[in-house]
Amino acid sequence: MMKGLKKWRLFSLLAALTVFLSGCGQEELSTLLPAGQVAKDQFNLLLLSSGIMLFVILVVVIIYVVALVRFRRSKLGEDHIPEQVEGSSTLELVWTVIPILLVLLLAVPTVYYTYKLGDVTAMGAVDDEGNAENLVVDVTAHLYWWEFEYPELGIVTSQELVVPMDEKVYFNLIASDVKHSFWVPAVGGKLDNNVENVNKFYLVFEEDSSKLKEGVYFGKCAELCGPSHALMDFKVKTMPRAEFDEWVVAMQSTKKDKDDAGDTAAASEGEQLFADSCISCHAVTADVKSPYPNLTTFGDRNRVAGFMDHTEEALKEWMKNPQKQKPGNEMPAFDHLSEAELDAIAGYLMGLTVEK
Amino acid sequence: MSSVAQKKGFGSWLWDWLTTVDHKKIGILYLLGGGFFFVLGGIEAMIIRIQLAVPNSDLISAGLFNQIITMHGTTMIFLAAMPILFGFMNAIMPLQIGARDVAFPFLNSLGLWMFIFGGLFLNISWFMGQAPDAGWTSYASLAITSEGHGVDFYAIGLQIAGGGSLIAGINFLVTIINMRAPGMTYMRMPLFTWTTFIASAMILFAFPPLTIGLFFLTFDRMFGANFFDHAMGGNTIIWEHIFWIFGHPEVYILILPAFGIFSEIFSIFSRKRLFGYTSMVFATVLIGFLGFMVWAHHMFTVGLGPTANAIFAVATMAIAVPTGVKIFNWLLTMWGGSIKVTTPMLYAIGFIPSFVMGGVTGVMQGAAPLDYQLHDTYFIVAHFHYVIVGGTVLGILAATHLYWPKMFGTMLNETLGKVTFWFFFIGFHMTFLIQHWLGFWGMPRRVFTYMDGQGWNSANLISSVGAVFMAIGVIVLLYNIIMTSVKNVPVANDPWGDGRTLEWAIQSPPLYYNFTQTPLVRGLDSVWIEKQEGNESGITPAVPVQDIHMPHGSIIPIFMTLGMFIAGFGAMFREETSWGLPLLVFGLAWTFVCMAIRSLKDDLGYYVPKEEILEDMKRERGRK
To answer: Which of B44, B32, B26, B50 is closest to B460 using CA atoms?
Structure first.
């Protein structure tokens, strides 16, 4: 019996170790590899609560194993009648008071962090010249795509959130159709995009996403929103403030660049086709909030439609039959276009970039 | 009753079961119905796990997947776990308090048939290709915009089944308050009776909000109301509050009876009085009370603000204290006892570590800022399966083995029972332990598939393999049940040998009037006390042998429920068909006519004559 138990212990220890070592998940989206103050605070709370809870489990398991080993009828004999103990006020007091203390130990930091992470008072702050002190991003969740508007900067983008590092970035969250939830696991917990009210919170991005395998953090929709809920991914690019400022300038000049280009050169075939078929839904300059995803930075993106490979082939597949790729989304199929026309549009879209 | 026994035809046998108001038969019917839906929900779970075993799976479509997860959750909670628990409450609780039946036998039957017809209503949606698809929580914005009749089936089906639950809860409450045998004070009630009592009180307060919420949803979807349409001044967050004001107590309604079952098991198979009985009772009451104070912890990410989140976080953590008290009391019941590892005890032993795991992850999620990360991920999926499967389902399986002889008069095979346990237990941990990490690694719940390259592949595969083990366990259990029923070897009053409460002092299965003479209860674990004092029968009668008053069976509950069932279809098709509205009116009228018949027709029941009872007692003595 004891030998079997020892083996079992060793085995379970090994199993536990494997699980712990196997991992912390992937940097792009693991809450166990926090890449910002908010996620770090939450991770600290995870460590504290796990510690307390492992202690509780340990105590329970010890009493449990000893009781199971010592008080077996096979040892004590069939006729053994145990003493009918009613209880023990001392013991019962002990296991009431100690859990209360443990809960208090967890409750204090919980309350502290709840207020800390919920503090958005600085959101509307302005400096002496009336300029906003903090970056604010309005996030609108639509059926299976994300829109990011920077109201102070006059730019709109979609599917990829671009943010500066090492400062608080504030978010206004709302949904345009059904409830969604905005979540960047590596950078901080989620907050819902409700349909009727704006939710506000902040995140801090402390790691440069260019160091990641794909150059982006992964964002998720965390609230069931329909068939393609699982495919409602977005990406987050973080960069130093100076680089971000450059990006902003590039975005702000997309309209002027386009107007200038329109004057000087004839539009390419792809651009012409896009203007005929797509422009009523999709803007290609960063100043316009179009009804469907703004494609100004399409060439800079990491995925097509948030989850497909970023290739012209995937893009064509998407355009031919969006319903097959992402059931329930609102884009009609463009299967009436010829292969050559699709090639041209795909080539045009892949060339839309502000970073290269 | 004796006249029924003489008719042997299938027709009269069926009529007897359809019209029965006997709490033991209704318990069996609840068990059958709940068992059927448990298997159905299990098949849905298997489809989910097969779909998620590998990334980018296209085995089933996104829309169908959402229907399956919605129906899996709804079925398991409302149509499997609760009815099966009601089955045990019905079959055992009146025996534990020395009663002849529940307080309202007619209502008992009505509640049963409402559950069955509500469950059928929900599942007919599959045959129409429009099953509910907005999640078992059916959050308003999605539920309102969901196309087809899926969510209509959810709203009306749950309304009917939920009405049945409310009726059952009220019935148990009244029974326990009024029908305890002489000497059975509150503080002498067995723990399963206590937890039935508290769970029923919770049903009484938790189900009306659900009823109202479902009516709002029904009106919004079928009658043009705008309770949840924010564009028309409605509010979707209201649904979330209403749903969780019901939904959180609901999880305690599911777990408390399981606590009661395990309390009985630890005590019986440790051959020892439950340690700290008084604190167990008060912990149960406290959990029931606090269960109503914490609903917003399901809504930490809704944006209620830091103050609300902080208050609900601390309240949530507070529940850990009474729950911990229970765990330690169970451990100390085993300590110093004489532990015999039978199948029910094996489940109880497996329950402790499983439920503790589920409990501690619950406290972790109670820490609001941490919950921002864990909410709606696979971590929460792991957590609630650890409490519901590790607590309620293990409790149900334990009770199935423990009470099978009492309900059916024959023992389930112990070896097969242990085989079931090991497959189920190992499969359970394999399926759900790893899901905590999937949550940490960023995997949201309710996803129909996931892309490759996010580090989730092997964990999902492990989880799916675990689900196969659980399925094998359930199949072995079904085989066990069939084999046992075929062999049908009769057992004695107390087949486990260490029964402590009144149900173990009467025949297995009990006579239809339960006790030949109402027992006198002289303390906690009264049968144990009697036997220790040398009274081998385990019962001291409180009254002489006398005529027993019993209720008549009735077919009216089925017809009454049928009216609601018909009205449901009428409401659903009112707008698109010409027959919808007449059908709705007809169904409701039908129900009201049934109610009128029930009210106007005097049915005073009948008496079991003293001679028949004496005859039964003689036969019982002869058997020994």
So the answer is: B50
The reported pLDDT for the residue numbered A20 is: 55
Q: Is residue A262 part of a domain?
A: yes
Check B334 against A67: CB less than 8 A apart.
Answer: yes
The residue segments making up the domain with residue A208 are 132-237
Q: How many domains does chain A have?
A: 3
B2-554+603-623: in CATH 1.10.1040.50:
no
Residue A217 counted as domain residue: yes
Residues of A whose CB is below 8 A from B337: 71, 82
Q: Cα distance from B226 to chain A (closest Cα, Å)?
A: 14
Mean pLDDT of A59-67: 95
pLDDT tens string A138-161? 999 999 999 999 999 999 999 999
Q: Closest Cα partner for B499 from B531, B543, B533, B540?
A: B531
Dist. CA B134–CA B75, nearest whole Å: 14
pLDDT in tens, B163-210: 999 999 999 999 999 999 999 999 999 999 999 999 999 999 999 999
| pTM beyond 0.95, yes or no | no
Write down the ipTM of this complex: 0.91
B259: tokens are 């606590």
Of B278, B332, B444, the CB nearest to A220: B444
CA B489 to chain centre: 28
* Closest chain A residue to B132, measured at CA: A226
Kindly state the helix (H) or strand (E) to which residue A115 belongs, with its residue range. helix A89-117
Is A46 within 8 Å of chain B by CB? Answer: yes
A11 and chain B in contact, CB less than 8 A = no
Mean pLDDT over residues B283-301, rounded? 95
- Chain A nearest CA to B294, separation (Å): 15
